[in-house]
């Protein structure tokens, strides 16, 4: 009995409507003190309110299961994307209810206002959808769902607690990967900014002999097939396949810098996942190497169907290290793992020329055997500062320093080009598009 009363007490909440009724009673009693002609009206108002409260309690507590709620969530969440979740709610009462719902989302989101309000008719069901955008990989723990129910009287509110505790992993941006994947399959990559690169010359990958159509290159006419068929026939070529594409991800402290809630490491991981997906669709082989003060994960290039899942599982666990990148270990790994000429995309970040000079000897050695492309980031905040007009002497100094650092990034690009190393200097938000664009350009120009 004590336990039942405790549950009743803990789940009973007073509403603003009840406090308004009590305020009315106080006012009527006050007037009754000065105006004797009111008689027993104040008592009638008070006892009427008490009766309505008892009726409201009876309506809400006459059943143990008046409401049912359940969270609908995916098996895993996609980092940096809007992930859709839902709450299924069903009214089992015989009357219309006003419902407030609190979903206890993980603390990583730092949100305390996930509150939904709705009205349900008797036996009505409803699905309430909302979106969450995680900015860090890892495990996110969801709590219970708490539902606050009011009857049409609305004097009290009863709380229902549904134990929906679950842990969802947040993986690298697989939603972004799927979007690019579908667009690559349907040749619609231009919709997200991927350029169509004109193929220069012909690759060595012969595809088929087909009928000539207006617009085909006259140089591809197959004269022997034309003589046999009696009509123009042309050779059709396709991009070379089974080329190796490796994404090398730097995990050192320089990749911890945050932009729009995501670290540079997360941007690099998301871009690597998309690039690997596009490479596999183009029938190339994709692989991944991660490096910090020591070599992390190594996935040899392959194009089997399970390769993308292997890459996804490995990148999910990667975290930033806080020491310098061990370039000697990276060079040794590249030489031992990558046996043929490949495209090596090195995601890193340089803030100064001295940082590049420490790594340049190893980059030049890798570039002797492979097509090396170094991808690093613009400091968008410094760029914004340098573009603002200076209002006083202090702002002039700040703007000058910002322009100096921004210009040093451009000098790094020229220094890499001087040694035959390709590079991409990009804002974090444009990383994926710029990287895929350069990969498609390299394939079109047959540079690998």
Automatic annotation (TrEMBL):
The name this protein carries in UniProt is: DUF58 domain-containing protein
Q: Which keywords fit this entry according to its UniProt record?
A: Membrane, Transmembrane, Transmembrane helix
Q: Could you name the domain of life of the organism this protein comes from?
A: Bacteria
Q: Which InterPro entries match?
A: DUF58, vWFA_dom_sf
Instruction: Return the SUPFAM superfamilies for the record.
Output: vWA-like (SSF53300)
Q: Carries keyword Secreted?
A: no
Give the residue spans that cross the bilayer. 12-38, 44-61
Q: Which organism is it from?
A: Mucilaginibacter gynuensis
Q: According to the entry, what is the taxonomic lineage of the organism?
A: Bacteria, Pseudomonadati, Bacteroidota, Sphingobacteriia, Sphingobacteriales
Q: Name one Pfam family in it.
A: DUF58
Q: Where is the DUF58 domain?
A: 208-351
